[in-house]
Amino acid sequence: MEPKVTSAQVGDVRQLVSAARSGDGDAWRELVDRYSGMLRSKCLAYRLNIEDARDVVQTTWMLAVEHLGQLRSDEHLGGWLAAIANRECLKVLRRGSRETASGDLGEVDRPDGHLPTPEREVAKSWLVRVLPDVVGQLSTSHRLLLEILVATPDLPYADVARLTGRPVGSIGPTRSRCLARLRDMLVAREVDGAFLN
Questions:
Q1: 161 close to 167: Cβ distance less than 8 angstroms
Q2: Domains of the chain
Q3: pLDDT exceeds cutoff 80 at 33
Q4: pLDDT: is 64 or 124 the higher one?
Q5: Angle CA(51)–CA(158)–CA(53) in degrees, nearest 5?
Q6: What are phi and psi of 141, to 5 degrees?
Q7: pTM score > 0.85 for this model?
Q8: CB count in 10 Å sphere of residue 60
Q9: Mean pLDDT, range 76-97, rounded to an integer
Q10: d(C-alpha 57, C-alpha 43), whole Å
Q11: Quick check: 48 pLDDT over 50?
């Protein structure tokens, strides 16, 4: 069963946005706490490195502070923030594509000590294109669980349970089932399982 947004939650968001617009620091902190995980997951979807992801999240909040008065419907704050983050992620990617490498590429240190094979790079590129569609085939509750776990990997399961409305004991097994389903769907699309390890 997929979680539904209640009218109380919508009203709560409206109140927080209204208070934040009036300069209430506690309201801003609550909004940051609620939506930063979602913003980090947007950055992960674009495969940004940690520093770029932090910059995007920070820039998104800065722009939100500057332009909160332009938000037409307070209950759509999450979508508005996501749109800002998407735009900022694309700016980072465009900026990165204009940068060129110089010097001897053989001097680049790799943590694993060896260069990737062309086949592995093709598989990674394919996975980046296909994964959002495959994840989109999961139920909303499973997508939410995975987004939270990916965006905040150190979050205790008790907090994940509170955010998702699931029993604490079900988080690990549900996560395992979701990942197994994703793997099966990717393999069904003819990905060599070796590239998924």
A1: yes
A2: 1-98 (1.10.1740.10), 118-197 (1.10.10.10)
A3: yes
A4: 64
A5: 10
A6: -65, -35
A7: no
A8: 25
A9: 86
A10: 8
A11: yes
